[in-house]
Design goal:
- The protein is an alpha+beta fold.
- It has two domains: 4-121, N-terminal domain of MutM-like DNA repair proteins, CATH 3.20.190.10; 147-269, Orthogonal Bundle (Helicase, Ruva Protein, domain 3), CATH 1.10.8.50.
- Helix content is 22%, strand content 22%.
- The protein has six helices and eleven strands.
- The protein has helices at 4-18, 41-45, 147-153, 160-165, 175-185, 198-217, and strands at residues 23-28, 34-36, 50-56, 59-64, 68-73, 79-84, 93-99, 104-109, 116-121, 258-262, 265-269.
- The strands form three sheets. Strands 2-9-5-4-3 form a five-stranded mixed β-sheet, covered by helices on one side. Strands 1-7-8-6 form a four-stranded antiparallel β-sheet.
- β4 (59-64) and β5 (68-73) form a beta hairpin.
- α1 crosses α6 (198-217).
- The radius of gyration is 20 Å and the shape is elongated.
- The two termini are 22 Å apart.
Amino acid sequence: MPELPEVETIARGLARHLTGRRIAWAHLMRSDVVHGGPIPLCAALRGRRVRQVCRQGKQVRVALDSGRSLVFHLGMTGRLIVVDRDEPVEAHTHLRLTFQRWRRELRFSDPRRFGGVWLVDDGASQSDAWLGRRLPPVSADPLTITLDDFRSALRRRRQIKALLLDQRPISGVGNIYCDEALYRSGIHPLARASELDTAAVARLWRALRRVLAEAIRAGGSSISDYRSADNQLGNFQVRHRVYGRTGKPCRKCGTTIEHLLAAGRSTFICPRCQPSPRHATTGKKRD
């Protein structure tokens, strides 16, 4: 699933390409990927100018001059790419936006359809007239959250990995960067968040911000489906220190990286750099 660095990379690419452009036509190939207000999507988009493109949590928000925004959630396999109009259309492409006096177009594809497209009124709540799925929650951003607010978000008797993956306290962190940040801060993913001492919380806060910033500079991690807005692969996967490195030596101490289950997700740790908490009773390794 695209996480904060991947979505930020996509949003920056789209902002560079689309800001100020006027939509000429919207081609919707699959209507069940569209959610939001009871307004026909294509009619609402045609002729509208793109004011701004930004990221919120794991969502890409395209603000229009109509006071509405087009919000994309990429789910597990979603892509938002800008290509020439004559490029062959890939399977599972659900929405295409063409623009006035421009030979390129925006395409949204999502083979597994865990993501979607939302048309929302800026500043309005999700009303009773809402159609389809509700937008996933967006909360504090890990790139801008203060240390005090981060410490408050962690005052819960939950496993730290489960808490970081829950998008309600902090939005944008996914499996890859959770594992990488926990490794860098020397915290086991099964540790209880509320039992982390002041120094550990500060280490995690710094590590999370650092790894996300590094991944953004590298264009994100391309593990399977992710591509940037320019349809390019990310490069951060070659710098992963634990994620996906089962059986390989820790880059710091040489201990073999292990694979376990935490928060229902495949998890990668260095057992020496991230000692197991005494209370941990789950997280059994799986082959």
